[in-house]
Amino acid sequence: MKDKIRCSWCSNDQLYKNYHDIEWGVPISDDNKLFEFLILEIFQAGLSWYTVLKKRKNFIYAFDKFDLHKISIYDNKKIETLMLDKGIIRNRLKITSTIMNAKNFIEIQKKHGSFYKYLLVHKKNSKLKEYLDPLNNFSPMALKICKDLKKKGFKFIGPKIIYAYLMATGVINGHQKNCYRYLELNS
Q: Judging by beta carbons within 10 Å of its beta carbon (0-12, 13-18, 19+), is residue 7 exposed, middle or buried?
């Protein structure tokens, strides 16, 4: 039996295949899951996504299942505990950014009802209708959202991180046209 055609970034590694086939690009409306994906994208910056996938379970445990309210009140003692945790990526700037981003994420939820609704407003106002290549690492919508999030106090984000985030969470269908998931998620 012939193997399915996947996006070119998806290697033959089973961890990558599972992530690509089951999660990547599937629309997410749950705010806690949206926050998890944002934080994982931030921690991935400068590293391979494979590194994050291998450590994902440790991240979930270390960051209290990405509970926004718990993370938003992390103190210096918790930061030091995270800095000693070999199961995650130990980067102080990314850890402190996670705390600040949790606080700002909560503020967006208060204003818009949910972070998901905030993303939908941007998607609705975007002229982005055509297929985008995930290897380009950029989109006008990602740039606009990035600028807005920075104004709202978000840290350690950029248009490439937001673009990867929008594709991972299904806001943008980033699957390549020849990938079997492209049509499944475009219907």
A: buried
Class of domain 27-186: mainly alpha
pLDDT band at residue 132 using 50, 70 and 90 as cut-offs = low
**Residues noted as catalytic:** 19, 41, 49
Which residue's structure tokens are 């993303």? 119
Phi/psi at 74 (nearest 5 deg)? -60, 140
Identify the sign of the CA torsion 169, 73, 153, 87: negative
Q: Which two tokens stand for residue 179?
A: 């990938």
Rounded to whole angstroms, the Cα distance separating 37 from 116 reads 12
> In this predicted model, what pLDDT tens digit does every residue of 46-60 receive, in sequence order?
999 999 999 999 999
